[in-house]
């Protein structure tokens, strides 16, 4: 049995229910901008040493909650755990980002792919259960995965990419191979998210970090369709409680209506979108999450406050159905004090908006 939830504002906002204020959490809120995170990572010896150790993953997940009045915790892990479990050999070189020892480039490589045994990802589910216990009902816990398309980008490129040449060459030249990769990825992601829910995640998020690099028409066929395949399999409730599902596509503003139509509870927006315009386009079909430019946090405190207020005002009063977040992950160089200003401003100004609505 889990402890009763003391702050369910985030979950109610996901389901477009009335809230006393706008909840806030930040993508990559547990990370290198926090000195306590850097100290724990040093003890762990590496990023994967951190992510695969239940105690370390629990510790760093809770660190930002000790500093800030955040309304949700997000599992500390990486989006590439699933292809790693497929046997692609994930590693993180200092300053170079993720690399796969065995990228998927040929027909034979694709033929070998299969949905991994979820037992290989037990360390993730153990971390979810541990974090949920450690939270003791303070705030909800979000689980997550990369989207099928975003995982495919890393799997084919072998790591990050500036031009997506290899993955797009396969997409256009051998669409049959790309569809097979994406179908396997979608089924793996769905199983992975369901196992996180079983372990204690109270909401789940699909990060389509690279959906926005696709052309219109191609996005729908190779990214959106497979994110929909994930949502069709992911639980909408667990033990009688609703489980909100969030979809975030960086650069996806062109396709808001189509993304809302595949069945998420929440759409995450990057910083290029106006929240009010997005709200008018999707109506009451989904809640919205976002979308401050992460670089605002390098500005003076009064500018951080002004930009947070501007974002809240653009969504409009009273503000129900909005989860405040950044438009992408927080930078490792962010001053921690800026986050204090942001969180406090969001809570204070959103309370004012509800009083005047």
In short:
The protein has helices at residues 9-14, 35-44, 47-51, 54-67, 81-88, 107-112, 122-135, 148-157, 165-173, 175-199, 218-233, 256-260, 275-282, 301-315, 336-356, and strands at 73-74, 90-93, 97-100, 141-146, 203-208, 237-238, 241-242, 245-249, 266-268, 287-292, 322-326.
Structure description:
This protein has helices at residues 9-14, 35-44, 47-51, 54-67, 81-88, 107-112, 122-135, 148-157, 165-173, 175-199, 218-233, 256-260, 275-282, 301-315, 336-356, and strands spanning 73-74, 90-93, 97-100, 141-146, 203-208, 237-238, 241-242, 245-249, 266-268, 287-292, 322-326. It is of the alpha/beta class. The chain has one domain (9-356): Alpha-Beta Barrel (TIM Barrel), CATH 3.20.20. The model has no long low-confidence stretch (mean pLDDT 96). It is found in: Cytoplasm. It catalyses: uroporphyrinogen III + 4 H(+) = coproporphyrinogen III + 4 CO2.
Q: Could you state the order of secondary-structure elements as H and E?
A: HHHHEHEEHHEHHHEHEEEHEHEHEH
CATH topology: TIM Barrel
Assembly state: single chain
Q: Using only CA atoms, what is the Rg?
A: 19 Å
Q: Helix/strand-derived class?
A: alpha/beta
Please report the total strand number as a whole number: 11
Fraction of residues in β-strands: 5-15%
Main pleated-sheet profile: 7 strands, parallel
What is the 3D form? globular
Strand arrangement in the largest pleated sheet: 1-4-5-8-9-10-11
Low-pLDDT regions: none
Helix percentage range: 40-55%
| CA(first)-CA(last) distance | 39 Å
Please give the CATH class: Alpha Beta
Per DSSP, the total helix count is: 15
Named at the architecture level, the CATH assignment is: Alpha-Beta Barrel
Domain module tally:
1
Mean pLDDT: 96
Pfam family, one: URO-D
Pathway: Porphyrin-containing compound metabolism; protoporphyrin-IX biosynthesis; coproporphyrinogen-III from 5-aminolevulinate: step 4/4
Enzyme class: lyase
GO molecular function, one term: uroporphyrinogen decarboxylase activity
